[in-house]
Amino acid sequence: MHAQRQRTDRGEQMWQWFNGGVIALICVVMLYPFWQTVVASFMTEAEYLSSPLKLIVLEPTLAAYKQVFADGTIFVHLRVTFLIAVVGTAVALFVTAYSAYGLSKPFVGSSLVMFLIVMTMFVHAGLIPDYMNYKSLGLINQFAVYILPYMINTFYLIIMRSTFLEFPRELEEAARIDGCNDFRIFFTIVLPLSKPILAAIGLFYAVAFWNTYMQSVFFITDSELKTVQEYLQKLVSDSSDLEGVMATESGEEGFSSETVRLANIVLVLLPIAAVYPFLQRFFVSGIMMGSVKG
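RESULT FIELD:
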């Protein structure tokens, strides 16, 4: 029995080492492109042309970033995307939580309502009906087209509803005895005790809104309302879009068109990359809260 237990422990230890090695390898593969992008953005033109795939910079320079700041075009689109992320996340998180709490309560036809909600995950009208619908509502070339159609994600709604289904009924009953109605219970008791799931879902919403691209392409023609993702896509795919950014001869200034592109990419990635570490601790607890039943 003792020998068998030792073999089992050794096998579990070997599996943990193997599992850890695989995860470490995956992390390296995923992080290398990001690290290489950051490193290359600080290279001079000569160093980048000699070897762009270095892990460290031999002659670091801020020339590419200075050129990006001097041009300033990206910050117009960054401002739009930042507003979309902040306003969209706040609105979507509130509407999703409020709807999920209501759907967690028993009412006549609740099964039918949930069936219709779930069907929206699999049935979609398509791009042309969406455009016609938004046009009839006056949303084309309006900031609201980034927010209103995407206030509720069905998957996140289901997860949050499952969380509220598990909420202790004793707390709600005690609050009602003290004279609280459903609105006060939701705002003063349910929301404060649901911070993990709110943080996790809120981050998912923030990333989705930050990566807004298709809406900018199809529903916005005003250049002042274009998102930074579309600007970045054009900057990366079309060298002519760098004409406004490359105001001087790159060789004389120590940067190239490629390092300017990479500097733009880093500036776009930085905000979300900075937010992740602070909310990562809510991921497991927040998602597990809503994954037990639903």
